[in-house]
From TrEMBL:
<dbReference type="Pfam" id="PF10294">
    <property type="entry name" value="Methyltransf_16"/>
</dbReference>
<dbReference type="GO" id="GO:0006325">
    <property type="term" value="P:chromatin organization"/>
</dbReference>
<keyword id="KW-0963">Cytoplasm</keyword>
<keyword id="KW-0489">Methyltransferase</keyword>
<dbReference type="InterPro" id="IPR019410">
    <property type="entry name" value="Methyltransf_16"/>
</dbReference>
<comment type="subunit">
    <text>Interacts with HSPA5, HSP90B1, TUBULIN, UGGT1 and UGGT2. Interacts with TET3. Interacts with STPG4.</text>
</comment>
<protein>
    <recommendedName>
        <fullName>Histone-arginine methyltransferase METTL23</fullName>
    </recommendedName>
</protein>
<dbReference type="InterPro" id="IPR029063">
    <property type="entry name" value="SAM-dependent_MTases_sf"/>
</dbReference>
<keyword id="KW-0808">Transferase</keyword>
<comment type="function">
    <text>Histone methyltransferase that dimethylates histone H3 at 'Arg-17', forming asymmetric dimethylarginine (H3R17me2a), leading to activate transcription via chromatin remodeling. Maternal factor involved in epigenetic chromatin reprogramming of the paternal genome in the zygote: mediates H3R17me2a, promoting histone H3.3 incorporation in the male pronucleus, leading to TET3 recruitment and subsequent DNA demethylation.</text>
</comment>
<keyword id="KW-0539">Nucleus</keyword>
<keyword id="KW-0949">S-adenosyl-L-methionine</keyword>
<dbReference type="GO" id="GO:0005634">
    <property type="term" value="C:nucleus"/>
</dbReference>
<comment type="similarity">
    <text>Belongs to the methyltransferase superfamily. METTL23 family.</text>
</comment>
<dbReference type="GO" id="GO:0010468">
    <property type="term" value="P:regulation of gene expression"/>
</dbReference>
<dbReference type="GO" id="GO:0005737">
    <property type="term" value="C:cytoplasm"/>
</dbReference>
<dbReference type="GO" id="GO:0035242">
    <property type="term" value="F:protein-arginine omega-N asymmetric methyltransferase activity"/>
</dbReference>
């Protein structure tokens, strides 16, 4: 049984998202990046090592996850990377005072369906403040019944599927895991669905 604070584990989705960042490393210097639900922060660390200005975040209710973010930064010689407690679906002073961002990262944040709307509420808030930003996210297919399509429509968001083979992440060893079972990983980019005429 996994610890309830599963942000202390490197999930296969984090490796796939890190691979996407590495494949796009030349576009990252100077980009302002926020990782949500960062946990051990592999994607955020890769982005920072590639020259992005990164902020890491996890739930303010999970101090062990926030400490994990800080520890990962220190181990990777990134002591300047800020770590914020941002809880999905909750407007906080830290969320309101965030500097402009270009890219939001989230690996395996679509884990529990009860959190899906809170996640997309937060993403919508961030994209409204940063209309040209994008949410780069990887997720593990856990159930054919889980979908965020209706929530994307509700929050005026659109998604673009990113094929794993397009960035060399379709190799089974890349997202291998000590957890039992096969892991089907998908990636999408979520952005604002602008209304016609804008």
């Amino acid at each position: 049984v996994l610890d309830s604070q599963y942000g202390t584990y490197v999930w296969p989705c984090a490796v796939v998202l890190a691979q996407y960042l590495w494949a796009h490393r030349r576009s990252l210097p100077g980009k302002r990046v926020l990782e949500i639900g960062a946990g051990v922060s592999l994607p955020g660390v890769v982005a920072a090592r590639c020259g992005a200005q990164v902020i890491l975040s996890d739930s303010e209710e999970l101090p062990r996850c926030l400490q994990s973010c800080r520890s990962t930064c220190l181990m990777n010689r990134l002591p300047h990377v800020p770590v914020l407690g941002l809880t999905w679906g909750r407007v906080s002073p830290d969320l309101l005072s965030l500097a402009p961002i270009d890219i939001i990262l989230g690996s395996d944040v679509f884990f529990d369906p009860k959190d899906f709307e809170d996640i997309l509420t937060t993403i919508y808030f961030l994209l409204e403040k940063n209309p040209h930003a994008q949410f780069w996210t990887t997720y593990q297919v856990r159930s054919a019944d889980w979908s965020i399509e209706a929530l994307l429509y509700k929050w005026n968001l659109k998604s673009t599927h990113v094929p794993l083979h397009s960035f060399g992440a379709d190799k089974e060893h890349l997202a291998s895991s000590s957890m039992p079972g096969r892991h089907t990983i998908e990636m999408m980019i979520i952005s604002l669905a602008h209304s016609e005429g804008t």
